[in-house]
Amino acid sequence: MNETKRMVQTLKRCLRARGTTYRSLGRTLGLSESSVKRLFSEETFSLARLERVCRAIDMTVADLARLSAEEGERTVTSHPSSLTLEQERILAGKSSLLACFYLLLNGRSISDMSSRLGLSARAARNILSELAAAGLLSLEKGNKVVMHARLPIAWRPDGPVRKLYERQVRAEFLQSEFVAKNEALAFHSAELSQASIRILLRKMDKLAADFADLAAPDVALPSKDKVSIAMPLAARPWVFSMFSAYRTRSAA
Questions:
Q1: Residue 167 to residue 173: CA distance in whole angstroms
Q2: What is the domain count for the chain?
Q3: For 174-202, how does the pLDDT look when each residue is reduced to its tens digit (9 = 90+)?
Q4: Which are the contacts of 192, defined by CB distance < 8 A and separation ≥ 6?
Q5: Cβ distance 219 to 71 under 8 Å?
């Protein structure tokens, strides 16, 4: 994919992540919805117009170019990112390391990370040194952090971080009414054929990929414009216990 095409694709993802439609973008630019669609389909952006589109979603062309380059790197390298088993063990073994790694991975600054977790300057330095020693990041001049992994991360299915997350999901995440702003819970149960199950699992994979696409451009946003969102996805053969109990009584 050439650079221009990749930048346009990145820009589309940024628009989608911010909930900006072609119609609303057209109103901002003084163009019709069809004209905006044509711009994106034909990729006919002048620099001035590209700057206006970026400004409409609180970005600069430099932000867009950086995100596009990062997405290009993720395409060339393994996608999603993966860590070594030892790195997963290190993160799972110390909650402060995992919390800091998560925040930095999502674009938080060192000061923002420290404020969010209530860390002193010394404690933050120690944690950064531990993450650097584990090969998870590098510390450069000016206290700049360079992450050695990018979202999304493919945690090992039976690895220590995945097991830690699963324990916390079971104990904490589902303890909600899911009625507040930015909350949703859907549960469906049905009898499906093997072919339908395969389609369902593919759609779940696609939704997980869409989630990652939304997260990638938002890494560059300031923390005040973001909310930490979690989205468990699960499917398995399962029957309500009331039906199982009924069958047991019937058999007896």
A1: 10
A2: 2
A3: 888 899 988 998 888 888 899 999 999 99
A4: 200
A5: no
